[in-house]
Amino acid sequence: MKIDKELSSYVDSGFPIIYINSFEETKVDGIISSVMGGRKGYEWNGADGFCEFKTKQSMIADKGLAETLKLLCADNELERKFLVLKDAHLYFDDPTVINCLKAIAIKISNGLDAAVIIVSSILKFPKELEKFITILEMDYPDQNEIKEQIIAFAKEQEVSIADALLEEMSMAFKGLTEFEIDNLLAAALADDGMFTRSDLKLIFDQKQQMIMKSGILEMIPLKERPEDIGGLENLKLWLDKKSKVFKSINKAIEFGVNMPKGVLIAGVPGCGKSLCAKVTAQMFAVPLLRLDMGKIMGKYVGESEENMRKAITLAEAISPCILWIDELEKAFAGVNGTGNEVTVRLFGTFLTWMQEKTSSTFVVATANDITKLPPELMRKGRFDEIFYVGLPNPDERKKIFEIHIKKRRRNDLSSIDISSLVSKTEGYSGADVEGVVIDAVENAFVDGSSALTTEHIQRAIENTHSLSEIMKESLTNLSKEYENRHFKSASK
Ligand code: ATP
Question: pLDDT tens digits, residue range 125-176?
Fold first, then answer.
């Protein structure tokens, strides 16, 4: 539902306080005006104080928020009126503000024909008001709306834009608000007075900045390719199949194919799970967004769920994309049992989204210890598949050695006896093998050798404690657990 319709239906149904989370105040003013009908509007904001909503003309000079609310609380001043509050979050530690808002909210719940609308770019409210507040999030414009905005901007500035560039630009702007798009369009024109393909880089960089500022999602640059993963052939094959669906998603859906939901990749640390998440985005030819679960957890009431909702909305607005949730078990550990209320509610939001998701946001979740995850997450219908990544077998170790030697000493590869290295590295993780190569290359350099040799690498192996040496028992338990659950093996 569009935000104006949502707002109108909340007001008509007598929801007492509506919190619009946005920094586009002018746009929000327009939306509020469109749903006011014949009602009058008051506003309080930090700059003008208590004023008339549309004209911003001062009602009573020098009235602070607390005094304004006290005044409006006292009589029936608010009958058939809207009260719009801006910058109010700065005053939520004032008991008068909280008490007056609560009193007004109760009056509205009891039939007073009025609405309080809080507009703020920061989502923060006191616990006492929680049950009176309904949150509305500004929509991100879809690709067609973005195109219209670019065309209107170009017309206003009297510059032209080629169709192909319009298509690419509108795609690149997905996930940004109208306000941010306008700013970027102005910046794109500022350097040379026209729209060119070089502006796409500016958009991408700025978008990365804005996504970072959201504080919850991170846009990861794509460097890794399928050839950089040694082994894990089953998983790569499966991802390749899904990428074919994803790349022609409209045709696939029309044909009756289900929208791909996502994959859970679980298993031994340092064996390529993160690598696979990165390669998936490369294979699907879409951006990779990493969700930082640590940053999701907020300290105010409702903040964590709201952050989760924000991350999901942002990812959906940017879609098609990959949403990578790293260390999933850290986020949802303890949901069954010791988990606190917030974790359980967060988990609920995530599960419902996974279940009902129709957008082209493909989730790649990675986890080390699946025993800590709630079983609901692994039920059919959440992820398309769950893969287990174990320690690399000899064939895989051979490939991992080749990849990492080639990366650093391409010309020395043919003279190195990889088979002898493979037989000495039973129980090594992919990260262990990479570590051995890194050490050997450094030693070769320090020794003054002109090339990397088998001996250098053998020496590095002798000085390494492999993952299975360090975590022997827990690795055996983990692999038993995965076997019992019949997860698909990522390796052939
Ligand atoms: P963790 O659970 O500890 O985050 P992970 O399974 O996600 O580990 P990665 O971060 O993907 O492991 O791997 C660590 C590094 O080890 C990678 O950057 C990569 O260089 C190397 N590596 C691991 N597995 C492979 C592999 N199969 N092929 C090539 N390199 C690998």
Answer: 888 898 899 988 877 888 889 999 999 999 999 999 998 889 888 888 887 8
Place of tokens 């129980």: 427
The per-residue pLDDT for range 183-237, each reduced to its tens digit, is 889 988 888 888 988 888 888 787 777 777 777 888 888 889 999 999 999 999 9
* Ligand 1 center–CA 406 separation, angstroms: 16
- 3-state SS of the chain: helix, strand, coil percent to 5? 55, 15, 30
390 lines ligand 1 (CB under 6 A): no
- Count Cβ atoms within 10 A of the Cβ of residue 418 and give its class: 0-12 exposed, 13-18 middle, 19 or more buried: middle
> What's the whole-model pTM score?
0.74
The CA distance from 462 to 452, in Å, is 16
Phi (first) and psi of residue 181, to 5 degrees? -65, -45
User: Which atom of ligand 1 is found nearest the CA of 276?
Assistant: 11
**Going from the N-terminus, what domains does the chain have, and what CATH number goes with each?**
3-137 (3.40.50.300), 143-213 (1.10.8), 226-389 (3.40.50.300), 394-470 (1.10.8.60)
Q: Quote the pLDDT of residue 125.
A: 85
CB distance 175 to ligand 1 below 6 Å: no
Q: How far apart are CA 215 and CA 292, in angstroms?
A: 9
